[in-house]
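Reproducibility note. Readers wishing to regenerate the assembly model reported in the main text can use the exact inputs given here. Chain order matters: entities are listed in the order in which they were concatenated for prediction.
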Amino acid sequence: MNHEIMFGVPLFRYHLDSAEIKKIAEEKFTLSQGFPIDETPGGWDCTVKSDFDNSQANLYTKYYDGVMKQFGKDVGLESGTAMMHESWLNYYVKGMNQEEHDHLPSFYSGVHYIKYDPRVHEAVHFLNPLFQIYSCTYSLTSKICRGEDALNAHPFSRQFIIPDVKEGDVIIFPSFLRHRVNKSETDVPRITCSFNINTIKGSTRRVFSQ
Ligand SMILES: [Fe+2]
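Running the prediction on these inputs yields the following structure tokens for the assembly.
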């Protein structure tokens, strides 16, 4: 192999017991006989139920102080902590999905899997931002090998990656990274809390005001 990979896309992983926020989310879910939270913006081309319209109220940030503190350290902040700027809940049952999207202009974004059973649910699909430069090679290789073999030969050329997660896991990724949630195949609710990190204490690069 006569090439090297110059840059990579980071994925940060944490774990946070989701019992308390799950209770709150399930109560919201139950109180309204199905879908209390239907504030998904009209511009979204998906069927997920969310309270994104109220995301700037940042109702759920209080659960993530520890994660933000650790994440701040992990991205190299010498002082201060990463600041969660927006947070919202997402509900999926059978047939519900979220289309491919990104979270620009935020810096980083995250997902907390607060009700999630890996036996019936599927995690987010991250799309390879460099896929176009590999797709030609992949197509050519596929003519020679089985598709699976081609993927094995060039793991960095995969079109998408589905991270292995379990309930309570928190993943944080760069906001530019496109991702989607495939249509749910089960009636067992899948609940996540998503968030954006727009301001980082100690940084003057980007500070949004309301
Ligand atoms: Fe997203």
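We highlight two features of this model. Residues 131-144 form the longest helix (14 residues). Strands lie at 12-15, 49-50, 82-92, 98-101, 108-115, 125-127, 160-161, 169-174, 179-181, 190-200.
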